Structures are given as C-alpha cells and as structure tokens.
Amino acid sequence: xxxxxxxxxxxxxxxxxxxxxxxxxxxxxxxxxxxxxxxxxxxxxxxxxxxxxxxxxxxxxxxxxxxxxxxxxxxxxxxxxxxxxxxxxxxxxxxxxxxxxxxxxxxxxxxxxxxxxxxxxxxxxxxxxxxxxxxxxxxxxxxxxxxxxxxxxxxxxxxxxxxxxxxxxxxxxxxxxxxxxxxxxxxxxxxxxxxxxxxxxxxxxxxxxxxxxxxxxxxxxxxxxxxxxxxxxxxxxxxxxxxxxxxxxxxxxxxxxxxxxxxxxxxxxx
Amino acid sequence: xxxxxxxxxxxxxxxxxxxxxxxxxxxxxxxxxxxxxxxxxxxxxxxxxxxxxxxxxxxxxxxxxxxxxxxxxxxxxxxxxxxxxxxxxxxxxxxxxxxxxxxxxxxxxxxxxxxxxxxxxxxxxxxxxxxxxxxxxxxxxxxxxxxxxxxxxxxxxxxxxxxxxxxxxxxxxxxxxxxxxxxxxxxxxxxxxxxxxxxxxxxxxxxxxxxxxxxxxxxxxxxxxxxxxxxxxxxxxxxxxxxxxxxxxxxxxxxxxxxxxxxxxxxxxxxxx
Lengths: 270, 273
Ligand SMILES: Nc1ncnc2c1ncn2[C@@H]1O[C@H](COP(=O)(O)OP(=O)(O)O)[C@@H](O)[C@H]1O
Ligand SMILES: [Mg+2]
Known about the structure:
The complex is a heterodimer. By secondary structure, chain A is mostly helical. Helices cover 77% and strands 0% of the residues of chain A. Chain A has a single domain, classed as MetI-like fold (Orthogonal Bundle), CATH 1.10.3720. In chain A, helix 6 (136-160) packs antiparallel against helix 8 (177-213). The two termini of chain A are 27 Å apart. Chain B is built from eight helices and eleven strands. Chain B is of the alpha/beta class. Chain B has two domains: 9-102 and 177-270, Rossmann fold (3-Layer(aba) Sandwich); 112-176, no CATH class. Chain B is 34% helix and 25% strand. The chains are: A mainly alpha, B alpha/beta. The structure holds adenosine-5'-diphosphate (ADP) and magnesium ion.
C-alpha cells in the first residue's frame, strides 16, 4: 500500500517547478495589489486606494447614478454589445461565407469591404452623430461597425482555405455543391468562425465604451466620463475594474461556448 | 526464372504473350477500368507518360512504384480530382466520373473529418448518397464491429492514434459497398498486426462483394499477399514497367516458396529504379 514514490533528482526538480508555476499567478496578483496600496498611500496621492474604491462601490449601490447601480450600468453596456454583436455575427458570417466560398462575390465585394474596414470604427463618430444624433441606435451602430471586421475576416479566411483533401473526399463521395458547402466547408470553417466571434466580442466591448463616452445616461463608458468630469477618481477606477472583469468574463463565455459547440477544437485533453 | 505460376509480361515482349490473347478474348463488359494513353503533366513536370492498361471487373490489382512516380496522381485522375493532359480513363466503358460510378477512395493522407465523431465519419458518405436510415445504421454497425471501433465511436479523430484514424477512412470506404475500391497506401502508418488483419479484411470484402480493387502500396510483400496482378511502375515520366500475375491459392502464406519467388522477383525488378 504505502509504497514510497521513487523519484530521481531530475523528476523531483520537475515537480517542484510545476508547483512553482501554479503559484506564480497568485504571486503576481498579490504584487499588483501591493503596488496599488503603495501608490495610493499618502495625503496627495493621485490614485484612489483600494479602500476608497470599495467605499465608492458601496456608495453607488446605495445611491445609484442616473437611477442605475454599477451593475445596472454594466447591464446597459452589455445590452448594446449583445444587440450589435448578434447583428454583426448574422451579417458577418453570411458575408464571410459568401465572399470566402464564391470566387465571383469575393472579387466583387472584398475590395469594398477592405476599404470599409481600413477606416477605424471611431472615425465614424462624427458622421454617425450627425445622421442619428446621440440616442441608442447610433451607439449600437458604432459597436456593430467595430465588431464586423473581425467576424467577416475570420469567416472569409476559414471558408477560403478549406483543406483541399476534405473537398476531395466530397468529390469522391459525389457530394453536390450544396452538400460541399453545408456538410464540409462550413463545418471545417467553424473554428475560424469562432475565432472571429471571440475577437469581435472583445472589439465590441472596447467600442461600446467609446460610444458611451459621447453622451447618454447609462453604461460603463458614461460612468468613466462622469467620474472624470466630477474628479471622482474612485468611480473611474471602479468602472475600470468592472470593465476589465466583464471583458474577461466575455472572453471566458465565448471560449466555453466554443468548447461546447465545437468539441473537436479541444485538442488532446482526455 | 520463369516458373509456371509466375507469368510476368515485360511490356517489351508482350506482343505474343498470353496476356495479349487474354485481352483480345475478353468481352468489353468484363473490363472495369480502362486506361488509354494516359498522360499527365503538372505544368512542365511530366508525371504519367502514355500509360495504357485494363483492369478486369472484380480484379484485385496492386500498384507498386517509387515515391513520386504518380501513383496518387493516377487515382486522382480516376476520381476526376485532376483531369488528364492526354488520353482518358474509362470505368464500365464510360469516361470516369464519380457521379456515375459507385467508387470509394481511401486517401493516403489523413482525411477523416475532424468535426465529426468516428461514427458520423463512417455515416458521411452514406448520408451524402441519401440511403435509407436503417441501411446506414446496419452498415455502420457492421463496419464498427469489423474494425473494432466500438469504444471509439463517439470520439473525435484528433483523439485517436494515426492508425485508428486510418481505420475510420477505410471503414468509410468499405461502408459504401463500392464496386470500385481505390486504396492509396492505406496501411503505411499501421502496426503489423492491424495491417495483416486489415489486409485480410480487404480480401474478404473483395471476395464477398465482388468489388474491383486498386491497391497502391510500397510494401512488396503486401502486394504479393493480396494481388491477382501487380503493376510495377517506372520512375517519372512513368510507364507500366511490368505486370506480374500472382495466381497463388488463398489464404496465401508468406513462407510458401512460390510466394517468396514472386516476392523476390518483384523486388529484383524494383531494384532497377
Ligand atoms: N497538384 C499537383 N501539382 C503539381 N505537382 C504535383 C501535384 N500533385 C502531384 N504532383 C507531383 O507529381 C508527382 C507524382 O506525385 P504523386 O502522384 O503524389 O506520387 P506518388 O503517390 O507515386 O508518391 C510528384 O513529383 C509530385 O510532386
Ligand atoms: Mg502517393
């Protein structure tokens, strides 16, 4: 039963390093926290301390800004992102398949799209503001514009570079054009499409902040501007922390969805 | 050298040989694949050079040849993945066309679809052909049992070893019950035991279904073990250097002196590459 485990010095050292690697992330988090405490010390520190930030959190929960707690503002931003992303995915995946799979539409439409996506989304702000004002729609439109390139480019690449051998298998089994598209090309491009979904999600989360800074009454972008205008640095930092957390959460969610929907992309992990 | 069981027909002195008579006396309907003056260039690269030969219905032909001589290219021409530069290939007297003929191809490279499980990979071709569900179920069950894939049926190809992945591709082809089965060095990656087993399975399938089989290999022993006729190809530009008829009784034995004689003979020919 209680046989001693036999290990060489080398193996013992490997094991030690493995343990060290597991601890290191926590160590770096601890360092960050220590750094935060350090820079926020003193009377005229220009950085809010952890305590002040926590207090600001409690305050906004008791006295909402424009009727919304921090979670309300996060939710407002998320709603914009979700609506824009769903539209971007529907349109972007269809467009990417169209241009990636059919050579004619590729030659016809891809130059237009390349021109469109070489303009950074924020450059649209003046035009969009003039056309649509400062309401909800222009914000969503801006997020849509910001998230569409990633999904189109990835889908396009996935459909354009379907491995020839898979299509040859289709030819051999006498698959027709529709079967080749739906049963071979699109499934084989799914991991590329998901890469697009991941990138477009993080792009959307970035652009929504910019869109909300333009004006309005809700969203984490609005909170940051509000904090800046009233020199409420704890509020700014609190918003930043939430933006980071939600961004990370979105990344994790898309990754999990991919694993769930495309289990074959999970490489060798029995 | 010439033993009674070893009728090798050098193309050079083929004129009066028995194979010529046989070819003359064969009615056309007995020919499954006819290759006529087949020439293939890839740009300037001259791969196949004016090749002509026939494969009879229900015949088991092995093709051996040096790496890069155009064996895979030949099969790709037969499935119309490539088009010939000159000449043509005929299946059942018609210009080859995977739409018309029930053929299956075991590719040399791993070609199982990574997004389908083992079982769904096996079903793929049958579903493309829109066979009835119970037919598909029955065939897939049979193949899974035959290839010992019961425990792996819900796995994805990347979770399998190379040889298991190759089993999927072989099973996918077998499940089609093709009347022309093309196999491109299918057992190259496999361990010996599985290879022996699958060699026998191909032979069994061939005997039971009357499938015509074209089997490409670089393993001479494998060729002699399975083939009724071995085509030895030359280097590029490639011609059929020689045909060797193997009419040993089955099951064949590797240590049978006749077997060894043919194997040595083919090996001897190949040394000239
Ligand atoms: N699609 C292609 N384009 C250009 N050259 C090719 C192509 N396919 C094969 N070749 C060339 O044709 C020759 C024969 O290839 P292949 O049929 O794969 O040989 P084998 O299967 O006998 O090893 C090789 O020299 C290879 O480089
Ligand atoms: Mg080859």
